[in-house]
Predict the 3D structure of the following.
Amino acid sequence: MILEKKKIFNDFATSKGLRSTRQRDIILDIFLSTHQHVSVEELYLKIKFSNPGIGYATVYRTLKLFVEAGLAREILLHDGQTRYEHIVAGEHHDHLVCTGCNSIIEFEDETIEKLQNEIAARHGFMIKSHKMEMYGLCAACRQ
Amino acid sequence: MILEKKKIFNDFATSKGLRSTRQRDIILDIFLSTHQHVSVEELYLKIKFSNPGIGYATVYRTLKLFVEAGLAREILLHDGQTRYEHIVAGEHHDHLVCTGCNSIIEFEDETIEKLQNEIAARHGFMIKSHKMEMYGLCAACRQ
DNA sequence: TTGCTTTTGATATTCATTTTCAGTTACTGG
DNA sequence: CCAGTAACTGAAAATGAATATCAAAAGCAA
Ligand SMILES: [Mn+2]
Ligand SMILES: [Mn+2]
Ligand SMILES: [Zn+2]
Ligand SMILES: [Zn+2]
């Protein structure tokens, strides 16, 4: 799994003529070791802990490369922090975001995805990406 | 329609103990005269034109009041600008956003809304709001 | 190694939005 | 109608996430 993702990134880097650097390896390792929906800040702090030398800008730059490489997806919720999550091949999900405890529930719904495509088709629109988020209170936060 | 919205805001203001000010009246008038999806910047410039004295902060503050009053909805697309649109009672729509020409197509889909509620219910989640946007190219921009 | 190019990290900058605060204005009740 | 008081305003400063800058460092091909 992890080796596979590293290979994907290396192949991407090669095809783009990017150099192999210690920083990118470290950032990828640590990104792959995180759970879903890490903010840049969180990831930066985690990296900083074991690798104090790595700069903020490099983390930002590298995460964008992961997105380009198809390893990560950018998640913009309503807290002004960009988050990243792992892309699992052939899988897509959307989010229920609890405004009480900031937890995120993931869900998949084939029917909705299909309806989205129909709506787009009806308007002659070509979808490149979509976002669907529901904000509210999770079971625990409803007391 | 416009008078009705003004009444909604006045009632809201009264219920909250807010004072009636010239600035809020002007900003509401001009907001009501705009079309969908105005950015704060756009609205500010429009206001500035006829009322040079009104400050940026007041526009920001007042738009948030409109949201609270149920007159406006905040729209966060992915261009770093917060936009506001009019809320029409008993109506809800989502957006197709063209990344080519920045146009926005609105659509309603009862089935999707129903499915969203079912998903939320299944997770014991209480929805307060949701956002659904599809990004891509509109018919014109596909050439 | 050499030489060239990319990459990095510290720092400065940007840009939307929020906060601050002193002066102004709206309401209350006498 | 006025005075007192609390809310409101606008200019400017502050914030905070993200990006740009640029000199030094590192990767790579020969
Ligand atoms: Mn997710
Ligand atoms: Mn709309
Ligand atoms: Zn919760
Ligand atoms: Zn278009």
In short: The first helix of chain B runs from residue 2 to 16. Chain B touches chain A at residues 76, 78, 96, 98-99, 105, 107, 109, 111-112, 115-116, 119-120, 123-139, 142 (CB under 8 Å). The CA atoms of residues 137 and 143 of chain B lie 9 Å apart.
